[in-house]
Amino acid sequence: MVTPYYDAVIIGGGVTGEATQYILNRFTNLKRCALIEKNRWVGEVNSSPENNSQTSHDGSTETNYGLAHALKVRDAARILRRYVESKKDKKLFRKTNRMVLGVGQKEVAILEERFRNFSQHYPGLRLVGREELKHIEPKVIDGRDPSESVCALVSSEGYAINYQRLAEWFHMDVEYDENSEFRTYFTTSVENIIPHDGGDWFEVRTSRGVFSTYTLVAACGPYSLSFAQATGYGLEYGILPVAGSFYSTGHFLDGKVYRVQKENMPFAEIHGDPDILDPKDTRFGPTTKPLPLMERYNYGTFFDYIKTPIVSYRGLRSLIKILRENKLMGYVAKNFLYDAPIIGPLCFLPEAKKVIPTLRYGDLKRRRGKGGIRPQIVNLNTGKLEMGNKIIETPRGNGIFVTTPSPGASICMDNGKYIARKLVQARGAGYYFNEEMFLKEFEPDPIERLIFVG
What we know:
By secondary structure, the chain is of the alpha+beta class. The protein has helices spanning 15-27, 67-86, 105-118, 130-136, 138-141, 163-172, 222-230, 302-305, 313-325, 329-338, 343-353, 412-427, 435-442; strands at residues 6-11, 32-36, 93-103, 125-129, 150-161, 181-185, 190-196, 201-206, 209-218, 237-243, 247-248, 256-259, 271-275, 278-285, 289-290, 365-366, 373-379, 384-386, 391-393, 399-402, 432-433, 451-452. The strands form 5 sheets. Strands 1, 2, 6, 7, 8, 9, 19 and 20 form an 8-stranded mixed β-sheet that branches. The protein has a 4-stranded mixed β-sheet with strand order 4-5-3-12. β8 and β9 form a beta hairpin. It is globular, with a radius of gyration of 22 Å.
């Protein structure tokens, strides 16, 4: 009988994989864990600050979130922010105002209603009008029609986060001692995953050799679904990879400014915020462009993408249904134009001017070679997008596959907490996750409890 060597193997050294390794190391008694990353360092793909929105989502100003979803994201965001603030690292995060801007009577009414429903759950949330907006974000009001109705929901809890830097902190906080073996293997690509004994353990075949493990976590964006399907799970899902690009404009905003979400639109409206790497440079985006790639600008991943179930009659039918029912054909075409030279900024300018009325064509500079891929899940049975966090599990909970589209990075520690619970339960008697310690350290109102199996 083969005995697996590792208690856990994690595939993916982005912010979710690194958060999971940190939590397993710090708050469980699992002894042997390997993290496998194909790149040379942590967070080089979608966790890179040049490839994502740099936002700690909490649901307060994201009008595509209903109240129930917003509160789940809020609680997860608070855990992450406790960790981030403990580092006292100016390169890791900036705290600013964040807002959602309403223009016109319809949008103003939407924000007034949202404030009535949300304010009791978000103490730092305020509803402000034109005069106060002039002081908070003057460029939002400059040049705007004085007769136009304007208001904003403003939160004082706006966090911009460098998620690659965060992944580095998680990586550095993993403790190595003589009683445990936590190792990270860089420049190591996964070639295949083979479940054994009905899925009781896994053989992970890599460019560095074979890793045998009782439990497995895939936290590698769209590849997580591919690995799940390689082991026989999540076969009802496909991926619509959505590429997001950004424009730079110079210094126009000091905090993040969202727009009110359009009805029935699955993707967030274009918004502006200061770059975490250079707060004097305001970014606008992300655009929304479907691309047949698993990783942005890594064109070799096209061949991995065409092996996924979305490239089939059932997948094509689902995509056509999504485009038709959400009236996305014109939207997608417009977003492709945004990346075009010369005409791209011209097409993008009206969208950005909805936030900054005085913005000019010459202010917009496309960030070439920047921007990541969001792996939106498509349910091939229903022909619909499944938005938000998506985790696929094996029946025993010893195999967990995290796709983490938006708001994945914002909830990485909450996902890591959930994964830790599942893995120690799957390992059985004698293994525990010290949730009491975790909650005491990271949750604002800790509930004392200890999950122990056996």
